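Course exercise 7: structure representation. Students receive a sequence record and must write out the corresponding structure in C-alpha cell form. The form below is the worked example handed out in class, using RAB6A-GEF complex partner protein 2 (390 residues). Read each field label carefully; the graders check that inputs and outputs are placed in the correct fields and that the protein name is recorded exactly as given.

STUDENT ID: A-19
EXERCISE PROTEIN: RAB6A-GEF complex partner protein 2
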Amino acid sequence: MIEVSAHLTRGLTFLAREVLECSVTFTCSASSTSSVESLAWASAQLHCQCHISGSKVILPKMPADEKSEELEMLQSSVNTSLAPSRGEKGNCILSTEPKILFCDLKLKPGERKTFFYRETIPSDAPPSYRGQAVKYSYKVTIGMQRVNCPIKLLRVPFRVLVLYGLGDTSLLEQDDQAASSNPFLAEERTQNSLLDLAIQVLNTVTSRKRPNSYNIKNSDGSVARFCLFKPAYKLGEDIIGTIEFPAGCTVPCIQYSVVLQSEEHIAEECRRKPHQGVSMSSHGRHQEFCLHMSKSHMVLPIPLHVTPGFITDIVCLKWRLHFEFITAKEPLPDHVIPADQSESALWQGPQNLNVDTLVWNLPIKILPTNPMHASTSTTLVTKTPAAVTV
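STUDENT ANSWER:
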C-alpha cells in the first residue's frame, strides 16, 4: 500500500504567469505485506473548470470547424488513460500539458520519495471566481496507476489572481527615474522576478493620491459633498472617504449608508434572457446618522477573499460604492445652542418625518494584492482529501 500526499510549497494563491510548485510524496506503508510496492507511472497537470448557471447563462454556439476540433479533442481525452477533469462539474476551459513525474517507481516498506511538479500558469487564464452565474476554479491533478489497476486522481485546489497591464513598463518609469537618480544605488540592477514586478506595479498604481470630490444633489437641492482620495485599491485595503454637509446644502440629510458591491455582467450573447439584469453582491456596509453634522467619514475594508475586477468572453465583474441618503422633504427645526456655557439644552427631534431616499453609485477599481498575503484568507474546500492510497 502506497500513500500519496501533495501540497503547494508557497501557499494557495498565485498570479497568472507565475510558476506554481507542488511537492508530491509517495510513502510505502511500513505494515505492507509485500517486500516491494510499485507504481507504473504518475503525472500532474493544471486545469480550470468553468461552471455556469443554466438559468442565467447560455454558452454561444461555436462554428462548425471549431466544434469538430473540440469534439476530436474530447474524444481523444476520453480514449487516453488520464482525464484530469473527469468527474468535475462544468467544462474544462484551460488545461496544461501533463508532465510525467516518474515511470516504474518501486518502494520498500517505510520508504518515501518526493517529486516536485512545476508549471507556469498561462497568462490568458481567467481569475478564480465564485459568482452567482459563473464560477472559475483551479486544481492541480495528480494521476497515478498500478499495473492492471484503475487510475486514481489526487486534486489540490488553488486560487489564481489576474493583474492586467503587468507587461506595461510605462507604469514603472516613475520608479525607475527615482532609482536612477539615487547615487547610493549600484549601477548594475538585477532583473526582478514576476512577483516583484507585480508588487511594484500594484504599489505604483494604488499609491497615487488623486482626490475627487462629488456634489450630491437631488431634485430639491444640494445634499452633501463626497471626497474619495484615490480611485484604485488593492485587496485588503480600506476605502476611506469623507462626506461633508456644508452650510450651502439646502436638503437636510438624516442618515446615510455606503455598501461595497460587485456587479456581475453577463455578455449579451451568453444571456439566457434578453433583458436579464445585473447580479449584485454586497461585501461590507458603513451606516451613520448625520443630522446636524457638518462632516463625517466612511471606512470600508475590502476583503481578501473577493475577486478583483476582470472580463472574459462570458462575464465581466465590476465594483462600485452604493450610497443611500435619507433626506428630509421639509425643513427641520434648528438646534438652539445656549450662549452661556453653564447652561444646557436638550433638542428633541420630531416624532414623524417626511423623508425621501437618494441613491447614488460610484464606480471604483479593485486590483489584486500580494498573493502570499491573499493566501492567509483563502479557504478552498474540496471533497477530495489531500492524500490518497494506491
